[in-house]
Design goal:
CATH superfamily of the largest domain: ANL, N-terminal domain
Radius of gyration: 23 Å
CATH class of the largest domain: Alpha Beta
Strand content: 15-25%
Number of helices: 17
Largest sheet: 11 strands, mixed
Keywords: Coiled coil
Protein name: GH3 auxin-responsive promoter family protein
Pfam families: GH3, GH3_C, GH3_M
Helix content: 25-40%
């Protein structure tokens, strides 16, 4: 057993034993109180009467009753635009050093989300907690001596007036603790590269010089990087290059859709740990083995609220009705889809982050991401969430022994009748008609609303299978490769027509 690794592991174990955690519900009350106290003298705090809210007997109820919901465009249009102009004390004391750019899954236009010093510290603290949680897994001590490949966006941040701008993964990597830099790969010089293809080619060239024990990054881009490394060295799998690879942390995207294709690149199974790092903060991470759920970070600068994910509460653009009820952590139930609302130390208030989640264990505050509010297909009453889509596609993988790491779909009108047209990223000889029939049957069985829609306005299902690489090229064309970029799962008819034209150019 490696001595240094044993010392590090023991130190982490002791730290975990010494620090006693409060209950998530109690922690959330304290976080809200701290947020309100720190921001009471900001323009936002004065406008919405934080001082008066702090005098209330029930802070959570008073907060929800006095502050409306905000999506990005509402928050940016009324408040963050002033911060971007250099004005102080707008929605958080002082001015932020960074703005996180996030195109996410919504299109070409980047969002600019403030990242304060307090948020950088919160992300760093949660990162340390996540590393500490590794001791809950069956990982040998010498793992803690290995290097970690963090595949994110460029750390060469752009100067915009008095701010630095970049994706959150680049901002976080540029602020890693000094003691961690010796473990961090691909290193500062390669991490600063903005060109994805150049970065990956350089990683592949240097791969044998590193003793990688863990990978961290979005699954789709991590797969592409590993394939490049394997091809460059003419290897059979990634373990021929990095034999000590034992852990993969997936960032911001559920790993399950990529599991089958990802495992094809390994010589043996590794420990997979889901994390939930968004441009708005580090929200959750998998805390223990035996589950794929993640523990909400309830004691570190983020206050959570939960709106039941029902069609009557959601506007067509994915925003919320202002009278939609918000629940606190003490009021939620397991197995129910909720729209996630956050308030943070970066000056986001009752902010619709755009994700839907479901609790798997309320007492432990453990969740899974179930989809996006904008990726909810209900054109003809099918009420089809991304989670339902993913479950059905995992069935298709098992039924036909295929891999479907990427997909998108839309409700399209053909001869005055609505159809769901799916594009599946998969390399298979199974006919698209056969997959469509099985997919339709799986969704009917799993979703009552979908079954009703199929008997009425939704006339059929169409499937087109294409090479998964086309999804990556679409992202490269519309946004860019790598970083935090994710594929949109549901498109409107106009966007879908553009997508279909693009696909035609790719397949000739």
């Amino acid at each position: 057993m490696a001595i240094l690794g044993s010392i590090i592991k023991t130190a982490i174990d002791l730290r975990g034993a010494i620090i006693s955690e409060k209950s998530p519900v109690e922690s959330q009350r304290e976080v809200l109180k701290n947020l309100l106290e720190k921001a009471k003298d900001t323009a936002f705090g004065k406008y919405y009467g934080f001082e008066k809210i702090l005098e209330s007997e029930d802070l959570q109820e008073a907060f929800a009753g006095n502050v409306p919901y905000f999506d990005y465009h509402q928050m940016e249009g009324a408040w963050w635009c002033k911060t971007q102009k250099g004005l102080k004390d707008i929605s958080w004391p002082g001015t932020p050093k960074y703005f996180a750019r996030s195109s996410g899954t919504t299109g070409k236009t980047s969002k600019k989300i403030p990242v304060t010093t307090e948020m950088i510290e919160a992300i760093r603290t949660t990162g340390i907690k996540q590393v500490g949680a590794l001791t809950n897994f069956e990982i040998p001590s010498d793992f803690f001596e290995k290097e970690i490949m963090m595949l994110g966006s460029s750390t060469d941040l752009e100067e915009q007036d008095q701010f630095l701008e970049g994706e959150i993964s680049g901002i976080s990597a540029s602020n890693i603790p000094f003691w961690f830099r010796g473990y961090y790969k691909p290193g500062e010089e390669i991490a600063q590269m903005d060109d994805w293809d150049q970065k990956v080619a350089t990683i592949a060239k240097n791969a044998r010089n590193w003793d990688i024990g863990a990978l961290s990054g979005i699954p789709s881009w991590m797969e592409l990087m590993m394939k490049e490394v394997i091809d460059y060295h003419n290897a059979k799998n990634i373990h021929e290059i990095w034999p000590n690879l034992q852990v993969y942390t997936s960032g911001g995207v559920a790993f399950q859709p990529y599991e089958k294709s990802f495992n094809q690149l390994l010589a043996h199974p590794i420990t997979v740990i889901d994390t939930y790092l968004a441009s708005e903060g580090f929200l959750a991470f998998q805390n223990r083995p035996g589950t794929t759920s993640m523990k909400l970070v309830t004691d570190n600068g983020i206050y959570f609220e939960f709106v039941p994910f029902k069609p009557e509460y959601i506007n067509e653009d994915g925003s919320l009705w202002q009278d939609a009820p918000a629940l606190t952590l003490s009021e939620v139930e397991t197995g129910v889809d909720y729209v996630l609302i956050i308030s943070t130390v970066s000056g986001a208030w009752r902010y619709l982050i755009g994700d839907t989640i479901a609790f798997t264990d309320v007492e432990k505050a453990e969740i899974k991401i179930t989809g996006r509010t904008k990726f909810f297909l209900n054109v003809v009453g099918s009420q089809l969430s991304v989670n339902k889509m993913e479950v059905a596609l995992r069935e298709m993988e098992e039924k036909f022994d295929i891999e479907i790491p990427e997909f998108t779909l839309a409700a399209v009108k053909i001869n005055d009748a609505f159809y769901h047209h799916w594009y599946l990223g998969t390399e298979t000889k199974i006919s698209a008609e056969k997959i469509a029939e099985a997919l339709d049957s799986a969704l009917k069985e799993a979703n009552k609303n979908y079954s009703v829609a199929r008997s009425k306005a939704l006339k059929g299902v169409k499937v087109t299978t294409i090479n998964p690489e086309i999804f990556h090229e679409w992202n490269a064309k519309n946004k860019k490769k790598g970083g935090q970029v994710k594929m949109e799962k549901v498109m409107d008819e106009e966007k879908f027509a553009t997508w279909e034209d693009f696909v035609k150019t790719q397949i000739g």
